[in-house]
Write a structure and sequence with these properties.
Layout lengths: L5 E6 L6 E2 H6 L4 E5 L8 H14 L2 E6 L10 H7 L8 H17 L4 E4 L11 H19 L3 E5 L5 H11 L4 E5 L1 H6 L5 H7 L4 E6 L1 E3 L10 E3 L8 H11 L5 E3 L7 H26 L4
Parallel strand pairs: 1-2, 1-3, 1-11, 3-4, 4-5, 5-6, 6-7, 7-8, 8-11
Antiparallel strand pairs: 9-10
Helix pairs in contact: 4-5, 8-9, 9-10
């Protein structure tokens, strides 16, 4: 894989992301795949998906889990419903995550990603300790399949995420860094956060956002790439400095308006290619 191939978040039957044919038309070469419904995760279905991906010249670099009952309506809803944090659904969702890991293995992909949810701030909280054990169980299961787990940034500041990763203490636990989520959730400036957790960063979402007037209490606003508060020129420069060479995966969540979504992702592809070229010229190296 070439350095920094541009990708897009995609889906095949339900969930977030553009269809695979749209990804192909956009000219990208990699995708993060939102895990399909359970009926589409059989070995036979995985073979069909793999053939379709090959026909489009697309490589899946991570499969992302989502869970029934999650709501991103506002920050309180996220706290109550998202990821492995909610106690009432934790074991059911752990079982679902394991099924997504199984599907990831069927596609011969080595990374499964998820939003784990709002990690408790109090490290002595029994729920924090329970989440540690749940995450260890997920990592150990994934390790048996040769798969890494990537936790997406957003719901906690970088120092708290770093402490959590170190406490879980599993060699296959990493981070999918989304700079816009740091802004949307009011959790800190993305570039310093990227530098802080750099050793764990194994995948990237390229998404932009503007700050809320009440960071951490109300949502920021997702924007077109290059129109928000993320300095993507500096973002790529920092990725270069930390030695990240993997895909730059565009995520633009406006699926209610597919034409606009497609146009904005196309613009994001052009912007990232321009920034890559500019950085390459400054470095005197091929993009």
């Amino acid at each position: 894989m070439n350095r920094w191939p541009i990708g897009v978040f995609a889906s095949i039957d339900e969930g977030l992301g553009v269809d695979l044919d749209v990804a192909h038309d956009l000219g990208v070469t990699t995708v993060h795949l939102h895990a399909p419904s359970q009926g589409s995760r059989t070995p036979e279905a995985a073979q069909v998906v793999a053939e379709r991906l090959r026909s489009f010249g697309l490589e899946v670099t991570a499969v992302f889990a989502g869970f029934e009952g999650e709501s991103y309506a506002d920050i309180p809803a996220v706290k109550q419903t998202v990821g492995l944090v909610p106690q009432a659904t934790r074991q059911m969702r752990l079982a679902e995550l394991k099924r997504v890991i199984d599907f990831t293995a069927l596609l011969d992909v080595d990374a499964a990603g998820l939003h784990i949810g709002f990690i408790p701030h109090d490290t002595s909280d029994p729920e924090y300790l329970a989440l540690i054990e749940t995450t260890r169980e997920a990592c150990d299961y994934a390790s048996q399949k040769g798969i890494h787990i990537h936790l997406e940034t957003g719901q906690e500041p970088a120092d708290e995420l770093l402490d959590f990763l170190k406490t879980v203490d599993r060699p296959n636990l990493f981070v999918n860094f989304d700079p816009a989520n740091m802004i949307l959730y009011g959790c800190g400036e993305p570039i310093p956060a990227l530098k802080q957790i750099a050793p764990y960063v194994r995948s990237i979402h390229c998404k932009d956002a503007s700050w809320s007037d009440l960071p951490g209490e109300t949502w920021g606003e997702e924007t077109t790439l290059g129109k928000g508060a993320v300095d993507f020129g500096e973002f790529l420069k920092t990725l270069d400095e930390i030695g990240y060479t993997g895909p730059l995966t565009i995520e633009r969540e406006i699926s209610t308006n597919p034409e606009r979504q497609r146009a904005e992702i196309g613009g994001a592809v052009a912007l990232l290619n321009q920034l890559k070229q500019s950085l390459s010229e400054r470095r005197g190296a091929p993009s």
